[in-house]
Amino acid sequence: MEWCKLWVLIKNYLGFTPLSSPSTQAVLDLASKRAAIGPQDLIARDLNPNQLSRLAKRGLLVRVARGLYASPDGGASENHTLAEIGRLYPKAVVCLLSALQFHGLTTQAPFQVWLAINVRSWKPTRGGPPVRWVYSSGQAHSAGVEVHELEGIPVRIYSSAKTVADCFKFRSRVGLDVAIEALRDYQAGGGSLDDLWHYAGICRVRNVMRPYLEALG
After folding, report:
1. What digits encode the pLDDT tens for the residues 59-86?
2. Of the candidates 180, 178, 183, 176, the residue with the CA atom closest to the CA atom of residue 162
3. Residues 88, 125: contact at Cβ < 8 Å?
């Protein structure tokens, strides 16, 4: 009898739980609601974290980065990549082309996710979607950050007004034509000029943006 109890404990520790067990279903249900899950998500719910790799080997989960797994059922939203990024790099801020795409201010479809981090921060590397890093500091980094919940994950994204100002600041990287298109779409969508002018001051691009604002009326 004691050996039977010991074997049950060993199986539970190693994650040898039946695919139809309640704990397995709980893991799969959690994965279906989030962009990605990791060991800490399971530990917080008294579930065995070893199930993650086991379920991935059986095709019920997909490993998207080191220590992170996602549901392969194709139920992801259009912002699934940003949700993954929010989980991988919670302190970074989605910026420039990726923020423009999120706010619907560009026709560009970047293959990398543009992320801003503080100049004093180490550039993290965790795998996952390809990332293009942008360094900033002070208010230019901290101002205009919004938190959007995407697939249950909080994702830090610059506001539309801050993003347009950033595009003029980093026009050598994204292209002046992209910045002008973003400005035109921002105005056409009824974006606040007061907000835009505020962030243009923070980004020190008021003199750069002024002629384009006047030309667009």
Report:
1. 888 776 667 787 777 555 568 889 888 9
2. 183
3. no
